[in-house]
Design goal:
Elements: E1 2-6, H1 12-15, E2 16-20, E3 30-40, H2 42-49, E4 65-73, E5 84-88, E6 99-103, E7 107-109, H3 116-136, E8 144-147, H4 153-164, E9 168-173, H5 176-184, E10 189-192, H6 198-205, E11 211-216, H7 221-229, E12 230-238, H8 251-257, E13 260-263, H9 266-272, H10 276-289, E14 297-302, H11 306-314, E15 321-325
Parallel strand pairs: 8-9, 8-11, 9-10, 11-12, 12-13, 14-15
Antiparallel strand pairs: 1-2, 3-4, 3-6, 3-15, 4-5, 5-7
Length: 326
C-alpha cells in the first residue's frame, strides 16, 4: 500500500516521503481500516517538525483521525468487518495511508449522512470544542462567546457549538472570505481582525462589557487582545498557538479583572478521564442528527498531495478542515 512516512524531522514538504509499505495487520485490540478520508491537523505539522508534545519513533506516518471501513479485526477487538467508522489514531498517527490500524477503543460509528471528509474531520475538532465550551468553560445560554480563527477547523466547530449552546457568538477572522464563512456558520457578529480594531469592535458589540467566554486557538497577539476584552468572571480558553508565540498571562491582571485562563489539552482526557469521550461523542452525534452542527470541509485533496495540504494548513489560508482522500 502507499503511505506517507517521516524518516527525519523537518518541514513537511522536505521530510514527507510517499513510499510503498506492507499493508499493516491489526494486533490484539486493533482493527484495520481501509481509509476513505483522513483529516489534516496542525499537530501533524508539529509532529513532522518534532515540535509536538508527543514524539512518535521514526519513521512514522502522520494522520491523527480518519474515516473508513473495517476490513480486518484483531483478537479481542469489539468490531465487525464492514463497519463504517471514524477512527482516532492520536499522535502515533498512521492515517496518511491507504490502510491504517486503529485501537478498537478509538473507533466510533460513522455518523449517518456525513460525507467521508466530514466524518474524518469532525472528531478531534468537535470533541475539542465541546470539551472546551461545556466541560471547561461551562458556557451558559445567553452568554457571549468570542471565537478567534472562526473560519478554521476548530474555530468553525466552536462557532456552531456556541450557537447550539444558546450563546451570542462573535467570530473573528482574517479577511473578507473568511468572514463570509464565519457568518455562514451562524455567527451573530463577525469581525475582520485584518481590517478592523478587534478590541474596539468587541467592546462596541458588548456595550463595553466584554465576552464571557473566549475561544483562542491562536495565541500571541490575539491572546493579548483577549485579555483586554474578557468580561468580569469571563473565561479565556487556551486551545493552541498557531500564531507561533506563547503569550503571557500576568497573574496580577487576572486577579484585578476576575477572569480565568483555562487550558484545553483535549488529548489528555483520553488518558486521565477517558469515560468522558463517549459522553461527548453521543452529544455531538445528537447535535448532528438535529443538524445543529455541520462539519465544514474547506478542501479535499488526493492522498498524493499531503505536503501541499499541510502547506495550505500551515499558511493559515484554509477554511474548515482539509482532508486527504486515497
Amino acid at each position: 500500500m502507499r503511505a506517507w512516512q517521516v524518516a527525519e524531522l523537518g518541514e513537511p514538504a522536505d521530510v514527507l516521503k510517499l513510499v510503498d509499505v506492507p499493508e499493516p495487520k491489526p494486533g490484539p485490540g486493533q482493527v484495520l481500516v481501509k481509509v476513505a478520508a483522513v483529516a489534516c491537523n496542525f499537530p501533524d505539522i508539529l509532529l513532522c517538525q518534532g515540535r509536538y508534545q508527543e514524539r512518535p519513533a521514526l519513521p512514522f506516518t502522520p494522520g491523527m483521525e480518519l474515516a473508513g471501513e473495517v476490513v480486518a479485526v484483531g483478537e479481542g477487538a469489539s468490531a465487525e468487518v464492514g463497519d463504517r467508522v471514524i477512527g482516532q489514531t492520536g499522535a502515533l498517527g498512521g492515517g496518511y495511508a491507504e490502510y491504517a490500524t486503529v485501537p478498537a477503543t478509538h473507533i466510533w460509528p460513522w455518523p449517518e449522512g456525513m460525507t467521508a471528509g466530514q466524518a474524518a474531520g469532525m472528531f478531534v475538532t468537535y470533541q475539542t470544542g465541546y470539551c472546551a465550551l461545556h466541560h471547561r468553560a461551562r458556557i451558559q445560554p445567553g452568554e457571549t462567546l468570542l471565537v478567534h480563527a472562526a473560519a478554521g477547523g476548530v474555530g468553525s466547530a466552536a462557532v456552531q457549538l456556541g450557537k447550539s449552546a444558546g450563546a451570542t457568538v462573535i467570530a473573528s477572522a482574517g479577511g473578507p472570505e473568511k468572514c463570509v464563512t464565519a457568518s455562514a456558520l451562524g455567527a451573530d457578529h463577525v469581525i475582520d481582525y485584518a481590517n478592523e480594531d478587534l478590541i474596539a469592535r468587541v467592546k462596541e458589540i458588548t456595550g463595553g462589557r466584554g465576552a464571557d467566554v473566549i475561544f483562542d486557538p491562536v495565541g500571541g497577539d490575539v491572546f493579548d487582545a483577549s485579555r483586554k476584552v474578557v468580561a468580569f468572571e469571563g473565561r479565556i480558553l487556551v486551545i493552541g498557538f498557531v500564531a507561533g508565540r506563547f503569550a503571557d498571562a500576568p497573574t496580577n491582571h487576572i486577579l484585578v479583572k476576575n477572569y480565568g485562563v483555562l487550558g484545553v489539552h483535549w488529548g489528555y482526557y483520553q488518558r486521565m478521564a477517558p469515560e468522558l469521550i463517549p459522553v461527548w461523542q453521543d452529544a455531538l452525534v445528537a447535535l448532528w442528527g438535529q443538524r445543529r452542527i455541520d462539519p465544514l470541509v474547506g478542501a479535499e485533496l488526493p492522498l498524493t498531495e499531503a505536503p501541499e495540504a499541510l502547506r495550505r494548513l500551515g499558511s493559515r489560508g484554509t477554511v474548515g478542515k482539509v482532508v486527504l482522500v486515497p
